Amino acid sequence: MLAFARLAMLFSIVMLLPSLPDAGFYTWKDKAGTVHFTDSYDAIPAAYRGGAQESRQGRGTAAGALAKDTPRRVVIHFERQDNAIAVQALLNWNLPVLFQLDTGASCTMITREDALALGLDMDGRPIVKGYIADGSMVELKRTVLSSLAVGGAEVHDLEVVIGKMRLLGMDFLREFHLTVDAVGGQLVLERKDGDRERETSSVTREKKRARDELENQLVQIELAIKARNTYIEELRSDIRDSVEKKAQVESALSEARQRTRFESSDISFDASTRRSIEKYEDVKARLDRHIEMRKNEMEIQQKQVEQLQGKMDYYQSLI
Fold first, then answer.
1. pTM reported for the whole predicted model
2. 119: left (phi over 0), alpha (psi -120 to 50) or beta
3. Which residues contact residue 162 at a Cβ distance below 8 angstroms, ignoring those fewer than 6 apart?
4. Which among 76, 117, 175, 198 has most CB atoms closer than 10 A?
5. Helices (DSSP H) in the chain: which residue ranges?
C-alpha cells in the first residue's frame, strides 16, 4: 500500500508539473534476464536493440545548469533499498544526503529537514499540488538548490520540491546519458554534448560562502576536540590519583584487620578497630564508584572525539 501511495503521489506531481521536450529512456534485458536502463540508444548492445522498449518522460520546467567542472563520464556505486536504487548526493556543497533514483519523477524532491538544514527560506515559495492514493490533495513547496552533486556530476540552480522523501528526478538526470549496471551496482552518468556552463558570479559567491561556512565549522570542531582531549587528560589524572588513594586505603584496611586475633569473630574486635575497618571499607567503596564513573565518562568523551574527528575529516574532503 505504501509503495502504491508513493507511485500515485509521484504520478500526480508529474502530471501537474509543466513539461519541456521529451527525454527518451530505454529498457532491455540481457541473456541472464537482468534489466538495464539507459537514455542513450547507442549505449544498448546491438544484440539487444531489437527488444529494447522506449518510454518518454517530460522534463520539469525548473531545469538547472550543468556545472562547468562536471566530467564527461561519472561512475557512481549505488546501494539497494527495498529494490530501489539509492545514491549519495551533496546539497549546496555541504549537506550529504541519500537520494532514491526515480526516472519517473519530473522534479527532484528533498525533505523539509534538508531545507531547514540548508537554511532555505520556505515562506512564500511556489506550491505544486498533487493527489495521493486515498484521493486527498497535498501541497508541496518549491525551492532552489544552488548545487546538487552526485559524485562528480553537478547541476546548479536547480528548482526542487519539498516533501517527505528524497527523490532524484529527471530535472537533474536530463543533463546526462544514464546507464544503470544492476549487476555491477554502478550508475553511469555521461554528460550530454554541448558547451559547459560558464560559472556565474552568484554561483561563485555561493561556493565561497559554503566553503567559508565549512572552514568555520572545522575551526569549531577543532576547538571542541581540543577541549574534550583536555578533559580526558584531567579524567585520566583523577583516575590515577584515585587508584593510588585506593591502594593506600586497602593497605590501611589490611593492617587494621591484622591487629585483630580473629577476623571472623566480633569478640576480638575492640570498638576503635571496628570503627577504623568500617571507615576504610566505606572509603574504598566510594573510591571504587568514583573510579568507575570517571572511566565511563572518559570513554564517552573518547567516543565523542572519534565522532568529531570523523566529521572533521569529511568536511576537509569537501574543501
1. 0.46
2. left
3. 109, 110, 111, 112, 114, 115, 122, 125, 140, 141, 142, 143
4. 175
5. 2-16, 112-117, 170-173, 201-258, 271-318
